[in-house]
Amino acid sequence: MLNMSSTPGEELTARSRILRAAVRRFAADGMAAPLRAVAADAGVSAGLIIHHFGSRDGLREACDAHVLAVARENKAPVLGGGGGAAAMLTQLAQVEGYAPVVGYVLRRLQAGGPLATQLVDGFVGDAVEYLRQGEAAGVVRPSRYPEARARVLTEQALGALLLQLPAQQEHLDLDELPAWLRAYSERIVGPLLEVYTEPLLTDRSLLDSYVESRTGHTPEP
């Protein structure tokens, strides 16, 4: 058990251990998991969690920052695979040790609230950037609405994933999550790639009418 008089190096180690334990516990049992359970998992006192993070919300905010950092580090390989944010989560979960991060994201979205909104906004901001990079590389078409497009793709992907989420039950088995996400990915990536590369509509008349109604100008071909 670590105490409040730890050296700076020991405090950093304790903080990291608490953060890892919190991500895993919140993923498994939901965002209402008690701090005492996180403390037991990390081998520290509940008081030390408050010392480092200030409150339960402070701990959750630190977990949010951690999982967004992991997502940013792993977003680039996803662009060519289809599925956006959902594909990224699937990819991460298949890498050893990342299932708790993915489970945490799903639980945070499931819980809702302001911090969930911040987390989605983080994913959207990253999507704007990697779609911009795709445009520069010539593999993604430019958009009239780059930020709105990124948000629609992100929200659709995460919303569809939440509808199928195996964590509708009280406890999420993190050991089974990678296989579940792999099966989910295999089911959706083909249809998604078809929609992205062979548009559902056979002509652009609806888009042209919409753009003209909003701008008063006939769109260029």
Structure description:
There is one protein chain. This protein has a domain at 56-167 and 175-206: Tetracycline Repressor, domain 2 (Orthogonal Bundle), CATH 1.10.357.10. The protein has helices spanning 8-29, 35-42, 46-53, 56-74, 84-93, 99-111, 114-137, 146-163, 177-197, 205-215. Helices cover 70% and strands 0% of the residues. The model is unreliable at 1-8 and 78-83 (pLDDT under 50). The chain is mostly helical and 221 residues long.
Q: Report the CATH topology name of the domain at 56-167 and 175-206.
A: Tetracycline Repressor, domain 2
Structural class: mainly alpha
In CATH terms, what is the architecture of the domain at 56-167 and 175-206? Orthogonal Bundle
Instruction: Round the mean pLDDT to the nearest integer and report it.
Output: 81
Rg, alpha carbons: 20 Å
Give the oligomer, counting copies of the same chain as homo and different chains as hetero.
Answer: single chain
Ends: how far apart?
A: 68 Å
The number of strands is: 0
Order of helices and strands: HHHHHHHHHH
Helix content: 55-70%
Largest sheet: none
Spans of 5+ residues with little confidence (pLDDT < 50)?
1-8, 78-83
Shape: elongated
Total DSSP helices? 10
Question: How much strand?
Answer: under 5%
What is the C-level CATH assignment of the domain at 56-167 and 175-206? Mainly Alpha
Could you state the CATH homologous superfamily of the domain at 56-167 and 175-206?
Tetracycline Repressor, domain 2
